[in-house]
Amino acid sequence: MHFETIAIRVGQEPDPATGSVIVPIYATSTFRRQSIEQEGGYEYSRVANPTRAAAEQCLAALEGGKYCLLFASGMAAESAVIGLLKPGEHVVCIRDVYGGTMSLLRLAEGRGIRYTYVDATRLEEVAGAIRPETRLLWLESPTNPLTYVVDLQALAELGHAHGLLVVVDNTFATPYLQNPLALGADIVVHSATKYLGGHSDLIGGALVYNRDDLHDPLWDQQAVGGGILSPFESWLLLRGLKTLAVRMRAHEANAMAVARYLQEHPKVEQVLYPGLPDHPHHALARRQMRGFGGMLAVYLKGGREQAVRFCESTRLFLLASSLGGVESLIGYPPVMSHASLTPEERAERGITENLVRLSVGLEHIDDLLADLEQALAKV
Ligand SMILES: *Cc1c(COP(=O)(O)O)cnc(C)c1O
User: Please, what is the angle between helix 231-242 and helix 50-63, to 10°?
Assistant: First the structure.
């Protein structure tokens, strides 16, 4: 089956009780047993719920994975992975990582987890950071907010040569554009809040993996840890997944047009979008991904004053955290997603005062370009 068909049909057989074409929201905490000895079937909704199970089956198939677990947020899914680590163990993490992941590692430090940030575009730097107690290699591609692309296959091989668990946050790419498991990753992480849900109306997260030996420990993190996705949000996620393919194609068409427009604008210093031929990792993105997504980073000419004026002048591009919804958003990483870093840490990561991040939505491209034009006129 092709991606579009999987998204609409897998895990979503008409309801056996009524023929309902859409998977119902099973709003129940518990399920009646036929007998005390009953084997199989549903028992209690924290452990398993049919609406959540449908969404898990569908997303597993879309990522080419055997297992999927859905969580109450992307961060809850990440916590489940970090929860596998024992005190004293060490993580090698891509430097240009989601801000929440940095906060989570800082939190994990309190129970003895150590970590090192690396420039994952340089394999020798990654290899040099691996210690005897390193257990996990945490990757993200394209990265947030700079849209850097790292060689997932080469990094997974390197990680496995050292016996590491290789984790890839695939939120920006989505399974429509990239399947990290096929490139060698052990666990794929998603914030379902973004493109998978796609309509800015849910918070959710997912883990997808193939390895049987990871299933018991990760399932414990979900069912015992308890940070599950609710039946209602599982249903919203199923609804979002059905249109993921068409949305991603439209996000990309709009993002490419916005990137080309901004690249030519006299008030713009540089645009980072993996689909532009002059993006530093364009060739790798072409090889590793099936498209370039809807996120781009823009360095304006000038500094903080110009960036802030731009962010506060757009009308259609709403000034808000998050990404991947049908509506376009604009963000200012130094104060929003990366506020917890020191100015030195930000500079090290290329998050300078003139950097703006765009999540290009599905409004008409002419309206989006007109909005950017009027905002840049005020910069
Ligand atoms: C938003 C996001 C997360 C965290 O997901 P939540 O659903 O907000 O908890 C993790 N990684 C990336 C890349 C994200 O964009």
Answer: 40
